[in-house]
Amino acid sequence: MREHAAVRGYNLNSRARQVCKDDFDRFDYIFAMDEQNVIDLESLARTDKDREKILCLADYLTCHPDYTTVPDPYYGSGKDFDIALDLIEDACMEVVRRLKEGF
Known about the structure:
Layout: H1 2-7, H2 23-26, E1 30-32, H3 35-44, H4 48-52, E2 54-56, H5 78-100
Parallel strand pairs: 1-2
């Protein structure tokens, strides 16, 4: 992912980590990439307020109507990493637009 992101000008120099319960206190929203991620996050949520913070990133896709999730490219090819980045960029642009409008 780092190699494919670098081609687009992104510097991914951090390490991934598991979401923890305290993240519901730290963040306004927690975005999941697929339905299993949503289920996993819901199992960590302590309250209805926590559950309201869980959103599926693919719900904000505007240019990729054939996708309902951001597929995990880990076991795929370079093309799969590019598709994941395309989807993430697409959805993030919509998220930013909505944040500017007050979500």
